[in-house]
């Protein structure tokens, strides 16, 4: 079976936001061409709560079974993290699928090759331990020579506001995060625990 890439396109046939009326179309590469093999009408309602949005994205993940890549105009927040949790690779592109599918396939193959050589170190992904409550450890980043930073690992998730609480296990509290809490930009607390530190970030609401 040839490679498959899914794209969310709007009525114009160009990539669209998941909050725009459109279709998720799965393309398969066959004999040098990309052929649409299945599609699903899809549009997220901005009025949906976090639980309903997550359910909608799980439906998309089931539809995409066997296809590990999704492209949209922009994919952020709850949709992004639900798809990532389902093991999908997410790309953001503007334009017609015919203009970028080959480029995405090439980049995906490059990344798979590097992972096979052990040259790519993945950022830790927060794990949901209860409804809206997440936990993540950044000790590996802090204690190892990974080239990754705590800000790279945490800031996108914190900014997404898709959680009620985020518990972060650290070797030490990241200075930037400590400053955000002390300055009132983030609501949270820092506690010592078992030779390390646990930072808990709380949201009064989430999208």
In short:
By secondary structure, the protein is α/β, with parallel strands linked by helices. The protein has six helices and ten strands. Helix 1 crosses helix 2.
Structural features, described:
The chain has 207 residues and is an alpha/beta fold. The protein has two domains: 4-116, Dinitrogenase iron-molybdenum cofactor biosynthesis domain (Nucleotidyltransferase, domain 5, 2-Layer Sandwich); 127-202, Translation Initiation Factor IF3, CATH 3.30.110. The protein has six helices and ten strands. The chain has helices at residues 50-63, 77-85, 97-116, 139-143, 150-160, 175-182; strands at residues 4-10, 22-30, 33-42, 69-72, 89-92, 127-130, 133-137, 165-170, 187-193, 196-202. Strands 3-2-1-4-5 form a five-stranded mixed β-sheet, sandwiched between helices. Strands 6-7-8-10-9 form a five-stranded mixed β-sheet. Strand 4, helix 2 (77-85) and strand 5 (89-92) form a beta-alpha-beta unit. Helix 1 (50-63) packs across helix 2. The longest helix has 20 residues, at 97-116. It is elongated, with a radius of gyration of 19 Å. The protein starts with a strand and ends in a 5-residue tail after the last strand.
The share of residues in extended strands comes to 25-35%
Count of distinct structural domains: 2
State the separation between the terminal residues, measured CA to CA: 38 Å
- Radius of gyration (CA) equals 19 Å
Uncertain spans = none
Q: Please state the structural category.
A: alpha/beta
Determine the mean pLDDT.
87
Instruction: State the major sheet.
Output: 5 strands, mixed
Order of helices and strands: EEEHEHEHEEHHEHEE
The CATH C-level name of the largest domain is Alpha Beta
Give the proportion of residues in helices. Answer: 25-40%
Instruction: Specify the number of helices.
Output: 6
- Here the CATH topology of the largest domain equals Nucleotidyltransferase, domain 5
């Amino acid at each position: 079976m040839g490679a498959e890439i899914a794209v969310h396109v709007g009525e114009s046939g160009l990539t669209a936001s998941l909050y725009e009326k459109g279709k998720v179309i799965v393309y398969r590469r066959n004999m040098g061409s990309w052929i649409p093999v299945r599609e699903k009408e899809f549009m997220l309602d901005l009025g949906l709560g976090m639980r309903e949005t997550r359910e909608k994205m799980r439906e998309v993940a089931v539809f995409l079974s066997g296809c590990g890549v999704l492209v949209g105009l922009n994919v952020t927040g709850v949709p992004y993290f639900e798809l990532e949790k389902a093991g999908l690779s997410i790309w953001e592109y503007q334009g017609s699928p015919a203009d970028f599918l080959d480029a995405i396939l090439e980049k995906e193959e490059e990344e798979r090759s590097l992972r096979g050589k052990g040259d790519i170190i993945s950022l830790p992904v927060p794990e949901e331990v209860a409804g809206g409550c997440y936990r993540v450890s950044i000790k590996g980043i802090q204690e190892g020579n990974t080239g990754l930073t705590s800000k790279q690992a945490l800031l996108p998730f914190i900014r997404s506001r898709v959680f009620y609480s985020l518990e972060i296990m650290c070797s030490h509290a990241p200075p930037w995060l400590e400053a955000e809490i002390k300055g009132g930009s983030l609501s949270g607390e820092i506690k010592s625990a078992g030779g390390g530190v646990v930072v808990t970030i709380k949201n009064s609401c989430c999208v």
